[in-house]
């Protein structure tokens, strides 16, 4: 029996953190090996599929953020029992966080391996999560209008373009008396954007929505509305191959599919709990 295990003190790290752990080689009888190595790899990937069948094309782009190898011991003999090899290394400060999306992902893995001549190399793999701290952006109020042929159809006023996740997000609306609608749809939409080899793809996911029927919409008056948010939503993210962001979508529901829409970019922050450290940064995501 020859076995290798990989044990880490933590599973989640920040860029620039030190990773420490232990590689343990277990065997029931003596054997010789060429070396024991630890590999650290971090890869970003974006992928888009176009067409189907014979016309199906896959467009893929990769970026390596870490690709290093540490030799824990050179040529040696392994005695029966367990032999431990401690390790320690520092992550680069400029790496992006871990990410898992529809069109893109960023993964970080450790692999420990015993290299043996003329035999299968025992291996152990483990993923780690790289978290991110994002500096709080400045918030500001927003005022947007929706016009058609010089006629004002809708006005939207946001007291702040910053969503505090876990809280209701306030919105003010004013609908023109001349606008014939069935109602107004308000949606918070999460976007994931990639462009591998120039082939763009965007996944849009509506996370929250609110519908105001015509009878709830007095004309030429500001109307207060609010849309709920959840604390587990992801932070906006931008790396070399992947970008995510949030937008507020306000749509006039007009008959015969001639809806008209305003898109407003938003910023995101997580609310601190009472037990959280008061910190000028908001944690990122995985």
Number of alpha- plus pi-helical segments? 0
> Average pLDDT value?
90
- The gyration radius over C-alpha positions equals 26 Å
CATH arch. level architecture of the largest domain: Sandwich
Distance between the termini: 37 Å
Q: Helical proportion?
A: under 10%
Helix-strand pattern, N to C?
EEEEEEEEEEEEEEEEEEEEEEE
- In total, how many domains does the architecture comprise? 2
Say what the CATH topology of the largest domain is.
Answer: Immunoglobulin-like
**SS strand fraction:** over 45%
Main beta sheet strand tally, sense and closure: 6 strands, mixed
Unreliable spans are 272-286
> Quick one: how many beta strands?
23
Give the C-level CATH assignment of the largest domain. Mainly Beta
Shape: elongated
Output the structural class. Answer: mainly beta
Your description of this structure?
With 286 residues, this protein is mainly β. It folds into 2 domains: 2-131, Immunoglobulin-like (Sandwich), CATH 2.60.40.640; 137-283, Immunoglobulin-like. It contains no helices and 23 strands. The protein has strands spanning 2-8, 12-13, 18-27, 31-33, 35-50, 57-73, 76-78, 81-90, 99-100, 104-115, 123-130, 133-135, 142-148, 151-158, 162-165, 169-175, 183-194, 201-213, 223-227, 237-238, 242-253, 260-270, 281-283. Strands 2, 5, 6, 9, 10 and 11 form a 6-stranded mixed β-sheet that branches. It is elongated, with a radius of gyration of 26 Å. The model is unreliable at 272-286 (pLDDT under 50).
């Amino acid at each position: 029996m020859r076995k290798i295990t990989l044990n880490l003190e933590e599973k989640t790290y920040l860029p620039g953190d030190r990773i420490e752990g232990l590689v343990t080689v277990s065997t029931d009888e003596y054997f010789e090996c060429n070396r024991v190595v630890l590999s650290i790899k971090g890869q970003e990937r974006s992928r888009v599929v176009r067409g189907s069948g014979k016309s199906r094309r896959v467009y893929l782009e990769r970026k390596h953020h870490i690709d290093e190898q540490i030799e824990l011991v050179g040529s040696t003999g392994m005695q029966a029992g367990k032999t431990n090899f401690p390790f320690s290394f520092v992550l680069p400060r400029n790496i992006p966080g871990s990410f898992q999306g529809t069109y893109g992902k960023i993964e970080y893995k450790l692999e420990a391996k015993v290299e043996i001549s003329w035999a299968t190399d025992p291996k152990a793999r483990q993923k780690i999560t790289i978290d991110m701290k994002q500096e709080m952006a400045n918030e500001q109020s927003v005022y947007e209008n929706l016009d058609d042929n010089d006629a004002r159809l809708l006005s939207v006023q946001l007291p702040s373009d910053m969503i505090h996740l876990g809280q209701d997000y306030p919105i003010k609306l004013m609908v023109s008396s001349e606008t014939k609608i069935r109602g107004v749809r308000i949606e918070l939409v999460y976007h994931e954007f990639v462009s591998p080899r120039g082939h763009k793809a965007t996944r849009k996911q509506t996370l929250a929505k609110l519908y105001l029927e015509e009878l709830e919409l007095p004309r030429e008056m500001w109307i207060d509305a609010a849309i709920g948010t959840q604390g587990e939503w992801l932070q906006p993210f931008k790396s070399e191959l992947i970008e995510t962001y949030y937008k507020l979508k306000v749509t006039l529901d007009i008959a015969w599919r001639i809806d008209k829409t305003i898109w407003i970019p938003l910023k995101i922050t997580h609310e601190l709990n009472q037990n959280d450290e008061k910190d000028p940064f908001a944690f990122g995501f995985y």
